[in-house]
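Table S2 (continued). Query chain:
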Amino acid sequence: MKKTLLCVIWAITFNLFAQTTPTKRPLKPSDVFRQVSLGDPQISPEGNWVAYTLSNVDSVKNKRNSDIWMQSWDGKETIQLTFTPDGESKPRWSPDGKYLSFTSSRGGLTGSQIWLMDRRGGEAKQLTDIKKGDLSDYAWSPDGKKIALVITNDTDTSKSKSPKPIVIDRYHFKQDVEGYLMKKTTHLYLYNIETKKIDTLTKGIYDETSPKWSPDGTQIAFVSNRTVDPDRNENTDIWVIDAKPNATMKQITTFTGRDYAPEWSADGKQIAYLRTTSAESYIMYDQSILCVVSKEGGEPKLLSKTLDRPVGSPKWNKDGSLIYAIVSDDRTRYIAQFSAIDGKMTKVLGGNRSFTGIEKHPSGNWLMSMSDPQTPSELYVFESGNLRRLTNQQEAFLAPLALASVEGFTSKSKDGTLVSNLLYLPANAQKGQKLPTLLFIHGGPVAQDEFSFDMTRQMLAAAGYSVVAVNYRGSNGRGLDFCKVISADWGNKEVIDILGATDYVVQNGIADPEKLGIGGWSYGGILTNYTIATDTRFKVASSGAGVSLVSSLYGVDQYILQYEHELGAPWKNFDKYIALSYPFLKADRIKTPTQFMVGQSDFNVPSVGSEQMYQAFRSLGIPTELIIYPDQFHGITNPSYQKDRFERYIAWFNKYLKK
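Corresponding output:
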């Protein structure tokens, strides 16, 4: 009797639990409308609050909107500060902590202005009234009396409904998002808070960006390329200028590669910054080195030169003895500290996750952004040796979802190269089950797939596929030689590595060899084309923002420097251009049905690259389709188009792999 009663009670309890615990579901394309994105965290001067941006989708207007939020340092209070449909960005605290400023074009403004919000309450008030030019960045002086402005001036300020002809006279004349590059210059200005007067700090034919005030407020460090023709190289240097009109600027670094991201030490005597390893005019296969130089210039200390890994986001500690930074390693990004004297590195925070930003708290603790395969970026606090999650903005997005599991594996290519990869398995995958498998290839090429949240691969896994992310040669995180080996040899070693990873998942019973697909965007789309022109085992492909007829792209895309310095001029080295164009010139050997996608306004990898391959497939009778997203650049930002792209990926792959 007692046993029967216990069984009844257990059954009732189980049923009640089942009724109150919702079943997790797979990710679906419409979830792009629910995902939020955190950015630009800023700690208040006294350290009690963190301001940041939170963007979400306005489904009615079909666009993302960014608002300013505030989180208490102890994590107990979360406050939304702005609510307008116009969007706000770049939150910055006044040095006394009384005000929070931000940029916005709210109220029908044609361009961004700085707005000021009193922490004691009340509506934000417009602070600046910039009549000509576009405000792109700003920084408060340490005494709170002035603001350094970064303004881009356009020579054509007419508002005519009939645009003037575009007249080009520059070597590098087009850039994605920016479009055709006109005679614009970006300069630094000083805005007086009390008088509202704007003084010119820099002028001339060159651009100046990234202003950083010295701790005493007397000087500003900035970045500029002041070579004879900046269009013909990627050089930038660190400069310093007194924070007053008509001051003379002083060049601090002289490296012929890129010096950038200046950060003053607390005593104002030194500047930490990043520089490239290469001194060449064009820098693709490279990684940043952490450096320190005297504010007077001279020979810098190359603190991470022997590390052979990219370093980013440098921040000094309180006493100036250490510099904290983010290091990109094999499939991860970790936090490290470097001695400012000898560069000795100590790993502070690591693991299978990815840190993407750090900010110093007045107490000496740290704020950072972090993501892992199951969690989009949130803010975390590192104090007393412990990591504490500060924000929970992703909880609503994640709550109903059953996400794919993610694990790392190493494959061996046919030439013996070891390649680091990630495998996404659907949440309901059975152990030992062979699944239809997609190789989804990252762009760059100098980038990497990491143990971080990846919406695209999670989406494809949710559709029932095992998804493989291959960190082919050219990817970062494995050292400079691993990156540089593909220079002027595109579509060779990368394809060998992709096929090696494919062999691994087939031989280990993960992938069904009769149900293999491949896809990618940008360089991932380019490698998709190279791979299906090399191997016919893939039953379906999706090539996004790719190109195959490399010989036709000189002067068409934004990579004129890369063509000149990596391949040489076509009239001198046309054989090289032809060799790299093999997916198009050997299109008759391709058997894989392929979907081509691209943004109509893409100047990075223009639509002609996809159109050429689509036309070749149609001429040859290979199943294909071409999707062009109107008014989109290289990155598809329209939320409805993002949803549409996921739907088309899944429908196209399903058509050939799930008959």
